[in-house]
Amino acid sequence: MTKPNKYSEIVALLRKKYGISFFERGEDPFYVLISTVLSQRANDKTTYRISPILFGQFSTPKQFVAAKTSAIEKIIKPIGFYKTKAKRIKEISKIIVDKFDGKVPENLESLMSLPGVGRKTANCVLVYAFHKPAIPVDVHVHRISNRIGLVKTDKPEQTEQELMKIFKKKEWIIINELLVKHGQQTCKPVKPLCLEIPSSCPLVKMCDYFKNNAN
């Protein structure tokens, strides 16, 4: 079996198990950007809960610029690092208003010029807001990619580059969602389900971790 077919099979197996749900919502680019900034070093569930509350109070860059920092802090406090994130949200909003005419930029370089926006956050915006091919690599994607044996890397940036080489460009846009779901639901950090219930994971036949640890 050739490499492209092997990796496309992985995508197909994960998509069959978890489906693709994010793109059905058609999120606003600014919402995606701010929510992803909030998610940094934070629990996903808390971020998903707080983001709609925040945007229920302020929804546009201009409204965030006009808002008091203390008002933003009060809403996002459960997320953690809330003072730093509130400051960044204000800074990002002002730059978007002043430099980008109130619209979130659609390219990696411009996104990464915003305070607190690294490659992962910028790629999330490209994928989930603009449906452009990119591979956001967070802790789940980095861990799962190395555990399965897709890559042998030390840093998320290296993982991103290697995944871009082995997956077809048309597949990049769904890699993040599939691997994140796989890491959260099946290939968990401490105790992956495959060791107790091999049938729970569709990738056991091609996974280095399972081959090396299964009884």
Query: CATH superfamily name of the largest domain?
Result: Hypothetical protein, domain 2
Helix content: 55-70%
How would you describe the shape? elongated
Secondary-structure element string: HHHHHHHHHHHH
Described by strand count, sense and barrel closure, the largest sheet is: none
- CATH class of the largest domain, anyone? Mainly Alpha
| First-residue to last-residue Cα separation | 26 Å
Q: Determine the strand fraction and express it as a percent band.
A: under 5%
User: Which architecture of the largest domain does the CATH hierarchy give at level 2?
Assistant: Orthogonal Bundle
Poorly predicted runs: none
**Which fold does the CATH topology of the largest domain refer to?**
Endonuclease III, domain 1
Mean pLDDT: 92
Count of domain modules: 2
- How many β-strand runs? 0
Going by helix content, strand content and strand pairing, the class is: mainly alpha
- Return Rg in Å: 19 Å
Structure description:
The protein is an all-alpha fold. The protein folds into two domains: 3-21 and 136-213, Helix-hairpin-Helix base-excision DNA repair enzymes (C-terminal) (Endonuclease Iii, domain 2, Orthogonal Bundle); 28-128, Endonuclease III, domain 1 (Orthogonal Bundle), CATH 1.10.340. It has helices at residues 3-18, 29-39, 44-57, 61-66, 69-76, 82-99, 108-112, 119-128, 139-148, 156-166, 169-185, 208-213. α5 (69-76) crosses α6 (82-99) and α9 crosses α10. The longest helix is centred in the middle third of the chain and has 18 residues, at 82-99. The radius of gyration is 19 Å and the shape is elongated. It starts with a helix and ends with a helix. The mean pLDDT is 92.
